[in-house]
Design goal:
It is a single chain. The chain is α+β, with helices and mostly antiparallel strands and 312 residues long. The chain has helices at 57-75, 97-100, 125-134, 175-182, 184-206, 260-268, 281-299, 303-306; strands at 17-21, 25-31, 34-39, 44-45, 48-49, 83-85, 104-108, 111-112, 115-120, 136-137, 140-141, 157-158, 161-162, 210-222, 227-231, 240-244. The protein is built from 8 helices and 16 strands. Strands 8, 9, 12, 13, 14, 15 and 16 form a 7-stranded antiparallel sheet that branches. A hairpin with a 3-residue loop joins β1 (17-21) and β2 (25-31). α4 (175-182) crosses α5 (184-206). The chain is globular.
Length: 312
């Protein structure tokens, strides 16, 4: 696969059944217990898929997710993830391997929980705005007197949200509301796992120069074992805010290695939530560079090395 590749759509319907097509990912059925997730280079912001893609983004998110699945499974013995392999299923013709290798992963088929599990560690963005109004974040009372960008003094907080359909907006909900949606037993387990995963990942990332400011997890149920399983993308620049340690300063927002740069550009140009947005080349390159740097810090090698190729 070229390190300048741009794949905006998958085309495997002749080989496997297409189950869903999201803003970024396409999902196919491999067999009765396995799915194939293809992560394209499409990018979305404010619940809208943009007309411009980000080169190599699908490979970055896929390889990084597989990396985190390995790191977290080794650190948390009772954690299960949906990850099976980065290998392609036999249904995909060899002529298409160069297109789909590194941006596809086979995963266990699960029953998705209809909530998103968000963990926050620092007072920034929407959390900071809420805190300034009534000293709460997603309904959780936070000690007064904190500054923008400051870490929560009692440690990370768990703030679930709804999992909206494509095109709709997720909404913050209380833990009680989450329990109503998924059931108390599963809600408790999702919270427990989310905080455990975050703490392990935050320590790992900090050693590599990244502060995980907040992140979103998704889980599914293995109906054969009743296990809650970590699913979807894991701790990527699209599901998380990553601040480089060297840029961090209490009292201000920090420039991150994540999608926030793109969100900010859209907002500053009056394009947030607009359809048909075409990104300027400099914004595309800057976004890709941030994703690449996050990848290199967390995985310990460049994307080119991760793809098994020499440097650009």
């Amino acid at each position: 696969m070229s390190t300048d590749s741009l794949i905006l759509a998958s085309d495997l319907a002749a080989s496997m059944s297409l189950l869903s097509k999201g803003k970024v990912r396409d999902m196919y059925e491999v067999d009765n217990s396995t799915l194939l997730i293809v992560t394209t280079d499409r990018i979305s912001a404010f619940d809208v898929a943009l007309d411009t893609g980000i080169p190599n983004k699908g490979s970055i998110l896929t390889i990084l997710t597989a990396h985190w699945a390995k790191v977290l499974s080794e650190a948390i013995p009772d954690l299960r993830t949906h990850f099976v392999t980065l290998g392609l299923p036999p249904q995909i013709p060899s002529a298409q391997h160069d297109i789909y290798q590194h941006r596809s992963m086979q995963v266990h088929k699960l029953l998705p929980f209809k909530i998103e599990a968000i963990v926050r560690s620092h007072l920034t963005r929407e959390a900071w705005c809420s805190y300034q109004v009534d000293s709460t974040v997603c309904g959780i009372l936070i000690p007064s007197g904190l500054l923008e960008g400051q870490a929560f003094p009692d440690g990370p907080i768990y703030t679930p949200s709804t999992k909206a359909a494509v095109g709709d907006h997720d909404e913050d909900i209380s833990e009680a509301q989450a329990a109503e949606i998924v059931g108390p037993k599963y809600a408790d387990r999702i919270k427990e796992l989310s905080l455990s995963i975050y703490k392990i990942a935050a320590a790992y990332a900090l050693e590599r120069g990244i502060i995980i400011v907040d992140t979103k997890f998704e889980f599914g149920l293995d109906t054969s074992t009743d296990d809650v399983v970590l699913a979807d993308e894991i701790l990527t620049p699209e599901s998380s805010r990553f601040w480089p340690v060297e840029n961090y300063e209490v009292g201000q927002d920090s420039a991150g290695l994540d999608k926030q740069f793109l969100r900010d550009w859209l907002g500053e140009n009056g394009l947030a939530g607009e359809e048909g947005v075409v990104l300027p080349e400099e914004v595309v390159k800057a976004t890709e560079a941030k994703y690449r740097e996050a990848f290199a810090r967390l995985v310990g090698k460049s994307l080119d090395e991760g793809l098994g190729q020499k440097g650009r």
